[in-house]
Every structure is written in structure tokens, then in C-alpha cells.
Amino acid sequence: MRILGINAVFHDPAAALVVDGRVVAAAEEERFSRRKHGKRPVPFATWELPEQAARWCLAEAGLEPADLDAVGYSYDPDLVDHDLDGVDPGWEELRTTYARRAPNFLKTALPGLDPGKVRFVRHHVAHAASSGLAAPFGDAAVLVADGRGEATSYLAGEYRDGKLAELAAQRLPHSLGLRYEDLTEHLGFARSSDEYKVMALASYGKPRFRDELSEVLAALPDGGFLAAPVDLTRFAPRREPGADFRPEHADLAASVQQRLEEVLLDLLRWLHAQTGQPRLTMAGGIALNCVANTRLLAEGPFDEIWVQPAAGDAGTALGAALHLAAELGEPAAPMPGADLGRGFTDAEIQQALETARLPYDRPDDLAATVAQALADDEIVAWFQGRAEFGPRALGHRSLLAHPGHRRNLERLNDVKGREQFRPVAPMVLAGRARELFERGPVPSPHMLFVHDVRPEWRDRIPAVTHVDGTARIQTVDPADEPLVARMLDEFAARTGIPVVVNTSLNTAGRPMVDSPRDALECFGSSPIDLLAIGPFVVRRPA
């Protein structure tokens, strides 16, 4: 069975291909279009069809549109309730009209596709399948929490033998994700885009509004919750973009973050009592909150938690394909990793370098060359293998730096054009992670949990130690990432530190670098010292 999954509803348009139950390819349209989150001017801001991503997925497998057995579209317009509180009926009608016509839009974008093969998959079912069917284990509980689907904002259930049993849902307007988006906008950040900035800002505040928020953000005995819109100005004034932060802004962020964690813990306890499962899988935008994830694992009832690396809406493309595969009798294989996007041959990379007329070298030992540059306190752009699916740079499209110099946090935020309160992450050899970090799971290959930096290491790796003493680590297994692991070994041999700084290879407002051309443009426009691209290195002239 050859099944294409499509997300083109709210944001993060993406495509994914599943063949005989195995994930072959998955990519976000922003990596091709270079429009972050796939956003265009209103009214088309949320409905970019992932034409380029879909065509690439098919080409990666050597397929034509006519070869597909089914196409899963991760939204069912027939389930939308236009009378829900807080929903604009005109806007919803426009959205659902677009979704209903999606089969014909896809036929135009993918000539040869039979529009009759397009099947609508409920948004939260697609999220659930992206985690429950892609996880590295079988039966498990599943929790999905995000801004919204067709008429709900939450799903709780369990997978047994590849089949989903739904146990709870929450209808709009109650939504943990939308309330976090409200906070994001109130604090002067971009809604449905900058929620991770709020999570970082929360570390600077005190949760002094937590008790008042518990009256409006609370779990219910039936597995649902209260999370209706609330007037945030009663806690802190609205911040205009670019304005200074006040202490109450950080306090409000800390309060909402803590209350979110407490509500999720209550929901997990309810779900565990219903299922008895020792393992939990998670998806939806809320599942990208790595601070909450860590507390859920530490204090919650589940022994193990696996989070879909592309937990946001891009992941519903993969989930829609996996859900249809399961319905059609194809057992799903575990997701092979997050590196599901485009890759380029050495010849293609060399041709891009020649076209750009840049001097380059091909060192005998790329890992050692990069490790030495990092030891010399240079900033390195790292472009290797297939691109990551999801928002995290995991050693394929990364910016690297020495973690032992505190100023490197400021340097990297300047390179990327980011706020200075934003942390950067450490990449560490899996076998040495417990030497430096405690709390949080190991291995942790997808940067979806935070760990406490051991006190004796905080002064040795200050660039990756957040203000609260934590770090969002990525562990590296040599069996999975041999080149990255060798680079880390070489860096440790030179510095005594088995860690390098790893942040995404992009600048503010731009999608992560995807192609060699993107990498060269980023290198040319930013104060990066060395670009390691495939087997080649490009150095900035002195």
C-alpha cells in the first residue's frame, strides 16, 4: 500500500509517504517555499497546499501520483460545528469549503492523482496516529493536546493491536493550546509560532498568579478540562512587539506554564487509571513543551513517554497516512528517525559550491576538522544527511559552538537574530549524558525533555545552561549518528567536554536550512566561521 498524508489546514503544511506500513519520507512545505510555517498573507495564511513537499515525497520513492492507493487529509470538514462559542462562522465556512475542495486542489497539484482516493482523517486522530503508531513500542496510551481540531482541542485514548480506542475529548472553546496561544500573543510574540519563547521566558518569572488561574484552567473528573478564554490584562499589561519586558510578563508566563503542567498531570492520572498502560505517547502542539513533558515523566503515572518529534500540525500528515495504512490492514513499523526530509549527494553539493564560486576543501577527516574549529571557538554550520522532520535541529541542519564560553549564547542569538533570553541546547554522547545531566530521560534523541545540569558542570558548559539550571539535551548514539558522534569524541579529546552547542541552522523568521543553496545563503549572510556541508568545508575569509 502506498499512502500519502497531507496537512494543509491551520499551519505547518506538510506531506508524508508511507509504503507498506513504513515511513519513507516526510517534509514540511516551508523547507521548499521558504515561508516559515507555510504562512501567506490573509486570507490564505493557513492553507498552503504542500505541493512541493508532496511531489518530493513521491519522487523519493520513485512513485507517480497515479501509483497511490490512498491520500489522507488531516481534517474532516464534516465534523466542524459552526455554532461553537468563540468560532467565527464566516471564517470556519471558508476553511471548511477549502478542505472540501482539497481533493480537486490535490488533483491539480499532482496530475494523475484520482481525487476519489482522498480520504478525510479527523485532525486529532491524525495526531494520535502520528505518535501511537510511530512509537518504538506497541500498545500504549495516547494523549493529544493542541489549539484545536474540527470542534475539539484534545483526545485521550489508547492503542491496542494498532487500533485506537478513544476515551475522552474536549470540545471548544476550552483549549489548553489556544490559551497558550493567547498568552503568546499577549506577551508580544507571534501566535501559533512563538509559543516556545513563552516557555523560555517562564524560567525568568515566579508563578504568583497560579492560584487565580486554577479557577479557569482545571482538569475535570471525566477526563476533560476547563480552559475558556480569560482576560490576561488582569495579570499583566499587553506587551507590544519590541517593547521591554516587565517582571509581571515573566510571572504570567511562569504561572500559565505551571498551571498547564498541573492540568496535564491530572489528565495523565485519569488516563492511566482508565487504561493501565505503562507507556504513553503524545502529540499535538502542547507536546512540544519540553518543560511540561519532563514534569509529566517525573511526576506522572507512566513509566515511559514517547513524543512525536513533529508533534505540531506537520506531524498530522504522517499520522493521516499511518491511520489509513492501519485501516487498510498494514501494520505500522516504528518511525525510523526524524531525518525523513531531503538529502543531497556529494556531487550535488559540490555542484552547488562550484555554482557559487566559493573556495572549498575536502578534508581527510571532517569530524576532526570541525572539532578543531569548535575547540578554537569558531561557529560552525553543519549540513549533513537528510533534513529533520519537525522543529528541532538534530545534527543534520545545525549551528554548532563551544559550550564552555558563556558569550557563545549571545553570539548564537546574534547570528540568528533572536531574543537574548532564549536558550540554546547541548548535544551530548548518549553514553556520557549521565555524567553531566540528571533528571529527564536518557536516551533523549529528539530534544523533547529538559534535564538538570549537574552542579559541577554548570560553570564548565555555561552557554547551554539555562537560567534555571536546566538544558534541553539531545543525546547522540554512535549507531544512529556515527559522524556526529565522532565529531563529539574529537571535541572531547581536545577540550575534555563531551558536549557541543546545537541550535537550528536558520535566522530569525526563516525556516530551517534545507538545501545546499539555503546553507550557502545562510553562511553568506551570517557571521558563521565555517560551513561543513557534506564532505566539504567552506571557510570565511580572514
Radius of gyration, Cα only, in angstroms? 22 Å
So what's the overall shape? globular
Name the CATH superfamily assignment of the largest domain. Answer: Carbamoyltransferase, C-terminal domain
The level-1 CATH class of the largest domain: Alpha Beta
CATH architecture level-2 label of the largest domain: Alpha-Beta Complex
Integer tally of domains: 3
Distance between the termini: 54 Å
Amount of helix? 25-40%
Compute the number of helices.
17
Return residue spans where pLDDT drops below 50 for at least 5 consecutive residues.
Answer: none
| Spatial strand arrangement across the major sheet | 19-15-20-14-13-21-22
CATH topology of the largest domain: DHBP synthase
* β-sheet strand percentage: 15-25%
Domain Carbamoyltransferase: 2-107, 117-322
Protein name: Carbamoyltransferase C-terminal domain-containing protein
Pfam families: Carbam_trans_C, Carbam_trans_N
InterPro entries: ATPase_NBD, Carbam_trans_C, Carbam_trans_C_sf, Carbtransf_dom, DHBP_synth_RibB-like_a/b_dom, NodU/CmcH_Carbamoyltrnsfr
